[in-house]
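Most newcomers find our protein records easier to grasp once they have seen one. A learned vocabulary of local backbone shapes supplies the integers on the structure line. Here is such a record, shown just as it appears in the course material:
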Amino acid sequence: MRIRCPYCGARDNGEFSYLGDAAPRRPEGMAAEPAQMFDYVYLRDNPAGAIRELWYHAAGCRSWLVVTRDTRTHAIAGVAAARDVALAREAGR
């Protein structure tokens, strides 16, 4: 599988470290309920199909990326810098 890094170009997935689903959002504040934190840390879906994932380009530019990938075929539909995705998410609040 090859991932097209926005900074380095197409690279083998061996240069990257996989973190997981990019969708979960950390509960805000120190007053988060223990059940909310448990759900955030431990409970994850395992979908068959398109999912947005976090990948770290460890052997390259050391950037965090959001990769949209089909879990059934490993086909990559898109790659974006995680910083840009986070800024767009914040702007859409």
User: Anything to note?
Assistant: The chain has one domain: 2-25+32-91.
